[in-house]
Specification:
The chain contains 15 helices and nine strands. It is an alpha+beta fold. Strands 3-2-1-4-5-9-8-7-6 form a nine-stranded mixed β-sheet, sandwiched between helices. The protein is elongated and about 75 Å long.
Length: about 375
């Protein structure tokens, strides 16, 4: 990650950081400096640009604003220049710049206790005629700070197994609890978590058939007895009533032989839900199982399970308000860098909401495009 110096203004630091990204263009043919293209693109995407031509249009409409911060003496870059640059920039370098700026906006960031990891498909990046698969972005989400900590790209859902260790490698996760759905139930991922001094809580489904069957049978016979009940409460939301019960119990010797490293505890959750007009047909029951290296007495286990899905709210915001799923870009680096810029925007809006009246994330995202003062505040304050 590119570090931002504390003894310089954030404005100068942001421009300096953009200058440090490797520029692989032919130096004899450069018309527009790298920071000019990148800063212009960031501002335009923040203000709602959804493609390369949109970026050019925004830049032409905001020449006076841009000239305060970058060299615009050679005019506005063409859409093909911007597209090519996004295609050759290393996503890892782009990540370093954006994470450095976010860290400067959050000097009092809380220590990470719970990090949720989940994948999201960028459906617009698929092109059947060109045999291009939809790109997956595997993201790590901080529950304490409500921020995306990092992403890694993969070309298929099954490749998340390979992407997750790469994502863990770029994060500081010591002493945190990593929650992932059942795709992470394999020794390689568990070892990657434990090797970094972190803890795990993973969903357990029938992709591990023998382990799942053994856990399910033991849970029904012994594990879900009342002595193992650690939390029981009701949710009233979206016109539904939901009862959630959490049971924790030690891993038996038989289950341990089928399991993974340092697998100490099983958590069984029962969800009983109904709409507000309760009838026999409207009531639904569902059991889910989780494994963890935590001791069964850890009081945070139910909240780790419930809060894991906050990462889905981030995915929802990206799709509904930033059109993430409709983004049709087929060059992988360009698509990944564009997607990372949207996540950069969402992180900044969450960590630096506008002063005054409290508004929704949607309203604050709109305000970025309508108020250049707020755009400056996001990037430089």
């Amino acid at each position: 990650m590119i570090k931002i110096a504390k003894n310089k203004s954030l404005q100068n630091n942001v421009i300096d950081c953009l200058s440090k990204i490797a520029d692989h263009r032919d130096q004899n043919k450069i018309i527009h400096p790298l920071p000019t293209i990148l800063f212009t693109s960031i501002c335009a995407i923040f203000c709602g640009a959804e493609g390369w031509e949109d970026i050019v249009l925004w830049a032409e409409s905001n020449k006076k604003f841009l000239s305060k911060y970058v060299d615009t003496s050679n005019g506005t870059p063409s859409y093909s220049t911007i597209r090519r640059l996004f295609a050759v920039i290393s996503p890892k370098n782009w990540d370093g710049v954006t994470r450095g700026i976010i860290d400067c906006h959050n000097p009092d960031k809380k220590p990470e206790d719970h990090i949720s990891i989940d994948g999201k498909t960028l459906r617009g990046s698929k092109c059947t005629s060109k045999e291009i698969r939809a790109m997956q972005m595997v993201s790590a989400f901080s529950i304490e700070n409500n921020l995306t900590l990092g992403e890694v790209k993969t070309d298929s859902k099954s490749n998340e197994i390979k992407a997750i260790p790469l994502l863990l490698d770029i994060l500081d996760i010591k002493d945190a609890t990593i929650s992932i759905d059942a795709i992470a139930c394999n020794e390689k991922i568990i070892k990657a978590i434990l090797d970094k001094g972190a803890n795990y809580l993973l969903g357990l489904k029938k992709n591990q058939p023998k382990l799942h069957e053994a856990v399910e049978q033991y849970a029904k016979a012994e594990g879900t007895k009342i002595k193992n009940l650690v939390k029981d409460y009701f949710d009233h939301s979206h016109g539904r009533i939901t009862r959630r019960r959490y049971f924790t119990f030690d891993v038996t010797e038989n289950i341990s032989k089928l399991g993974f490293s340092k697998m100490n505890t099983i958590i069984a959750t029962e969800t009983i839900s109904s709409d507000k007009y309760i009838t026999d047909k409207s009531v639904k029951y569902e059991w889910r199982y989780y494994i963890s290296n935590h001791n069964k007495s850890n009081n945070s286990l139910p909240s780790y399970i419930r809060n894991h899905w906050q990462v889905e709210s981030m995915h929802w915001l990206l799709d509904v308000h930033l059109n993430d799923d409709k983004d049709k870009k087929y060059e992988k680096n360009a698509a990944e860098n564009f997607a990372k810029t949207k996540r950069f925007l969402l992180n900044l809006v969450k960590s630096t909401p506008p002063q005054g009246k409290k508004r929704s994330i949607r309203s604050n995202l709109k305000k970025v495009g309508w108020d250049l003062d707020y755009l400056v505040e996001l990037l430089f304050v």
